[in-house]
Design a protein that fits this description.
The protein has helices at residues 40-47, 70-73, 93-100, 107-120, 122-126, 137-149, 167-182, 194-200, 218-223, 225-231; strands at residues 2-11, 14-24, 29-33, 55-60, 63-64, 78-81, 155-159, 186-190, 203-208, 211-217. By secondary structure, the chain is an alpha/beta fold.
Length: 234
């Protein structure tokens, strides 16, 4: 479904991403784990066109994303839940969701999709007329995910969805990610909480200083001594 091959990305003289190759098959949850500065967010930004690659290829199906206008990538069935949520803080919850559906022309479909989001996130329905900026951190993360759902994506890229949340809310967010996957959504998950990320993923890649240091079945990686010591605190 999504294939990244020999990807290189630089910030000026700094070579940030070194020949990264990875793939996400339809129906999977694939996790990218690694320390701060490992290149996880840069990889997502390059996939979605927010950052230009130096070389390599990124394809979604048969489409080369590196030569596609970033504004058109959402039309291909890809949505991005950014690090830090990036909701529209002055807009209401309902308006944020409507913004997520800007490519959907059928108003009845938009209304049905909003109700679908509310079925996953009942708290958002309770706060539908409340400004996004007044929500708690966990509620804002739910809104960011809900907004991404509104474009009806085939694959969702999530960047640090558990950041800054309490352990209880982290469990809730990861439960929701699992539910979305079970409903047919393919997910590429960037996450520093390696234990939680590996617990729900099919496969995983470990990034270290812009390189893929390890990859494989997520359950196997949970038992790998190197991964356990470096990322799971065991």
């Amino acid at each position: 479904m999504l294939k990244v091959k020999d990807l290189n990305v630089s910030y000026g003289a700094i070579h940030a991403i070194h020949n990264i190759s990875l793939e996400v098959n339809e129906g999977e949850i694939v996790s990218l784990i690694g320390a701060n500065g490992a290149g996880k967010t840069t990889t997502l930004h390059t996939i979605t066109g927010l950052k230009k690659a130096t070389s390599g290829s990124v394809t979604l199906g048969d489409v080369n994303l590196l030569t596609t206008d970033p504004a058109q990538i959402i039309n291909l069935g890809m949505a991005h839940v950014p690090e830090g949520r990036r909701i529209f803080s002055q807009m209401t919850v309902q308006e944020n969701l409507e913004m997520g559906a800007f490519i959907v022309k059928d108003k009845a479909q938009v209304a049905a999709d909003i109700e679908n989001v509310y079925s996953h996130f009942p708290r958002l329905k309770e706060r539908s007329r409340q400004a996004g900026g007044t929500l708690s951190g966990g509620e804002q993360q739910m809104l960011a995910i809900g907004r991404a759902m509104m474009s009806r994506p085939k694959i969702m890229l999530m960047d640090e969805p558990s950041m800054g949340l309490s352990p209880l809310l982290v469990k809730e967010i990861f439960h929701i990610i699992t539910e979305l996957n079970q409903s047919g959504m393919t997910i590429l998950l960037v996450e520093q909480n390696a234990k939680m990320a590996l617990s729900i993923a099919n496969r995983a890649y470990v990034l270290e200083t812009g390189r893929v240091a390890m990859s494989g079945n997520a359950a196997d990686m949970m038992e790998d001594d190197k991964v356990r010591k470096a990322y799971l605190g065991m």
